[in-house]
Every structure is written in C-alpha cells, then in structure tokens.
Specification:
The chain contains 10 helices and 6 strands, in the order E-H-E-H-E-H-E-H-E-H-E-H-H-H-H-H. It is α/β, with parallel strands linked by helices. The longest helix is centred in the C-terminal third of the chain and has 15 residues. The protein is globular and about 50 Å long.
C-alpha cells in the first residue's frame, strides 16, 4: 500500500456491509482500510485511535447513531472527513447529518467505482452531495437570509462561489492566487457573516441565493 494512501475507517452496524466495503476498497491502490466499528460510539473511539483520513459512516445504528457520532467528532476537532453511506433518503435523516458536519452523503446503492471516487473527492476537501441530497437541503429554510450576502466583500463572494463549485481551499488559493491561510480566513469570515456552521451550508446558501456560478 502506497504511503500516500487514503486511510479509511468503516462504521456500520451490519457486518456484511462492512465486509463488502472492505473487500472492494482493499483492491484500490490508493485506499487503505485501517479499521472498522459497529456503532457510533465505537466509531468515535476508533477514529481517535486510528486518525483516519476519511470515515465511511452509516446514520441509523444502535446506541450512538451516525449523527451523534458526527457531532462528537466535530466537537473534538478530529480532522477526519466523514462520508455518510446509508440507505436512508428522508430529509429528516439527510439534513441533520450534514448539519452535524458530514463532508458528503451518498446512498448504499452507489456504484462501487463511484464510491471510491467519492472517498477521493471528500479527502481532497470537496463537499460531495448526490443530487437528491442537495435538493433536500435546498428545500430547507436556510439559516441566513438573502440580505446577509450584502455584508460579504467581493473577494469573499468569489471564495463562496468556488466553495459552491466544490473547490477545496488549496484549489481556491490556486485559482485566486492567494495563500491557503488567506483563503481559510475568508472562509471563516463567510461563515461568521452568514451565520452558517460549515462549508456545506455555505455551498447550499450560495446556490439558493444566486452566488454560485
């Protein structure tokens, strides 16, 4: 396994699902499955122990579910990017997971190659949502109203548009000829001014209010 392989942790209460995911992912040259967990609490513990790059997380699990596990990981500032992989499509499941800090949300019937691509995309810093998931978020009342966007500087609006395009901080920095540190500052200012919690909310706000290109 290459040194730069993406370290992945599998969190799902169904052993057959974990086994299937592991079997497929282990044949990917750039992905290394470093561990498994059967519920959210164990997933949090394993994420702290193993420090994976990406966590594949189910939502509905006994005990600590995926949404609560996401909140705990976020509160502890664990750097792992969480890709929710689930069979639940209802808004009442999708939205809380994304609000809790998921970097992406895909369904378990996703094509295996598309799942590998999703892992790579999330690891690269992108926000990854299947079309139905994006629609579920857009149909929710956004936290920030459209008037708040007028508080953004022109540069912040440029950064926001690129966030909505799924660009990572590194890609935004390259596109706008800025340092990554400066981009990070812009992102923080955008979230503060729009009263949003994360990049996912910012991306959807941009689409809803016409900032996205």
């Amino acid at each position: 396994m290459a040194d730069e392989a993406i370290r992945v942790l599998l969190v799902d209460d169904h052993q057959v699902v974990r086994r299937g995911l592991r079997t497929f992912l282990e044949v990917q040259d750039d992905i290394d499955v470093v561990g498994e967990a059967a519920d959210g609490a164990e997933g949090v513990a394993r994420a702290e122990e193993l420090r994976p790059d990406v966590v594949l997380m189910d939502v509905k699990m006994p005990g600590t579910d995926g949404v609560e596990a996401l909140r705990i990981l976020r509160a502890s500032q664990n750097p792992a990017r969480v890709l929710v992989v689930t069979s639940f499509t209802e808004q009442r499941t999708v939205v809380p997971a994304l609000r809790a800090g998921a970097a992406g949300y895909v369904y378990k019937d996703i094509d295996p190659d598309a799942l590998a691509a999703a892992i790579r995309s999330v690891h690269a810093g992108h926000v990854l949502l299947q079309p139905e998931v994006a629609q579920a978020l857009l149909s929710q009342e956004e936290t920030g109203g459209p008037g708040r966007g007028t508080a953004l500087t022109e540069r912040e609006r440029e950064v926001l548009a690129l966030i909505a395009d799924g660009r990572s901080n590194r890609e935004i920095a390259r596109r706008l000829v800025l340092s990554e540190k400066t981009v990070k500052t812009h992102v923080s200012n955008i979230l503060m001014k729009l009263d949003l919690a994360d990049r996912t909310q910012a991306a959807l706000w941009a689409v809803r209010h016409g900032v996205a290109g």
